[in-house]
Amino acid sequence: MPGADPSHGSTGAGGRQPTAAGEGTSSGKAALAGIDPGADETRQGRIHRILRDNILTGGIAPGTRLREAELSARFGSSRAPLREAIRRLESEGLVRSDFWRGSRVAEYSPAELYQLYALRGLIEGYAAALLPASLENAVQTRMAQHLDAMAAAAQGGDWLTVARLDTAWHREIMLASGQPLMLRAWESANGPLQMAFGQVAGAFYGRDDIHTRHHEVLAALGGPATQTEAIIRRHYIETAERLLATVASSDPAGSAPPEGADAASPRPGQTGLSDSKETNPTGETS
Predict the structure, then answer these.
(1) Which helix or strand (DSSP H or E) is residue 33 part of?
(2) Which spans in the chain are helix H?
């Protein structure tokens, strides 16, 4: 599956307004000031998680500038862990940085997203063709668990969790293939596609689709190599086409932040960055 793209501009959050870090609001300050890392989470790790969750949900809109001074104040942190968190987001394809514009939340055109889907399909299709005739029982069990959790998340309208679990389901195929270099290339698309898919999938993806489409892939594993590759590539391309049709039909007005907007300055009705405690179903370090 996962979030496909000449530039029609940012897919953003399906037209949602960006959320900021709560500059000047008591709730924003309470949420972000004085971060105390837990036993299993560093300060940098928590900053990364909060920023990542807000970017993936559209709380911080594509194109929004991440200003170090304001964000450091909001997090009650020095700039060193903040910079490391931003570098991690950049490596995940969620932030783009340059000398003149600083760091901004990444924007992807429909054509770019399509290319990322096509890339994932090519890599995963080739990797799947290398699998044995049947997957190990432990792999099948994990894939079944991811699939059931996906359907449950869709039932509750939590499409970002659907996107994360979908990534975890497909990662099982990549891991089982035992191709670490291909896995690394495959994972390079995770951030952008989770961001796009998680924000608009509810408009084109139904609960029944989840089991039907993934069981089709599962049934193809271990079959003739050319057939396996073709089915997995089609799986990704169909998702890309659905997503792009949804993006093209939506009104992009308001999806991009105002010129000069940054993630530490609030807009009307905003209270600040949300600190989600949700468990990461993909097992990714956040």
Answers:
(1) none
(2) 26-32, 43-56, 68-75, 79-91, 110-128, 137-155, 159-177, 180-187, 190-200, 207-220, 225-249
% residues pLDDT > 70 (the chain): 73
Element (H, E) at 63: none
**Which residue type sits at 109?**
S
Task: Kindly tell me if the per-residue pLDDT of 9 is higher than 70.
Answer: no
Query: Domains of the chain: which residue ranges?
Result: 110-249
What's the length of the chain? Answer: 286
Fold of 110-249: Four Helix Bundle (Hemerythrin (Met), subunit A) (1.20.120)
The residues with which 262 forms a beta bridge, in sequence order, are 65
pLDDT tens digits, residue range 199-248?
888 888 877 788 889 999 999 998 899 999 999 999 999 999 999 888 88
- Rounded CA-CA distance 180/257 in Å is 38
- Find out whether 286 and 56 touch, Cβ atoms under 8 Å: no
